[in-house]
User: Fold this.
Amino acid sequence: MPPTDSTESFRARRKLLGAMVSGIPAAALLGLSAPAASAEPQAAPVKPPSSPAPAAPEELLSQARLRSYKPRRSSSWDRTGGNGDAVRVEPGATAPLLDVTGAGVVTHLWFTINSRDPMHLKNLVLRAWWDGEPTPSVEVPIGDFFGLGLGEYFTYQSALTAVAPIKALNAYFQMPFARSARITLTNEGSVRTDNLYFAIDYVTFPRLPADVGRFHAQYRQAAPCIAAPGNGNNLTGANNYVFMEATGKGHFVGVTHSVIQNKDGWFGEGDDMIFVDGDTLPTINGTGTEDYYNGAWDFGGQAFANMHQGAPYMKDPERVGGRYCLYRWHTESPIAFEKSIRVTIEHGTDNDRADNFYTTGFWYQTEPHAPFPALPAPADRVPRVMPAG
Assistant:
């Protein structure tokens, strides 16, 4: 082999050997044992990926979230372009307020009424049908719907209903529908309503989710309640006044409750008792009427109106002829039911009082709903002191 070839070959072998030795730990080359941890090459520490910046809190974005629904309104505006923005409602006539097809949600009701009928708040009846149902899901004298169950106006504010100066009725319940919605107001009195102003705000969108209940409002009254005291220990709700009862799946959201006292003393020792899904004993049992309305000690004779509860109207409390208007909204935790619900309250201790109760219960549920009790005749809805004692 020529010398030059030998020299080049030696250089190549030395280069290869150097490369191999550089990858072997020094301890192995010297025949020494090494710690197990050093038997394998140590990987360089990996820097964790940087986390994305936290999203802004939803409460800072909720008002700015872009909406994809279509806003709509049905109102009494003057179709000629003038300023005659009201409709007349003759005795026995029905004014159409909303008639729409498709999916959507009614979000706000507003009314103001000019009528010579002193009891128009009891004689004008609000009704609503969802998705072509045969019977209305809402059937309530308009005053009772807005918490004015004694036929008189007063100003107050709550989370779901409000009366603004002067005689402006507002409701903010969400009323969803999948195929259609119809709302009417019928004059069941004997005097013409000269000016009915109204606005029904709603939104539409392509479809309604399947897990959405329908809004219901049901009027009831006992004028007077029947005093039927037992032994003072009412555990089963026998003879209680019934705010509402329903079958199906849904949740109860609240009540408006008006009272006329037919006897001196405090009317509100009655406990609320709510029976859910067939329970024979109360699923929820209260401690007194003022406690159910989140007050205490007979309200101290003081009117109040908060977002979830109130007694915004009181006149001559704890006397014959005493008048109260109350409300309670369970918006913090609606009372859910899977099969049925019955919402009741005692009228006095173990139902020993015979005062007048006028109430509207509000809830959501799957359809079809159970039949409503027949609406009392207009004359029977007029609040008055009864010789019940």
The chain has two domains: 67-206, 215-389. The two ends are 136 Å apart (CA to CA).
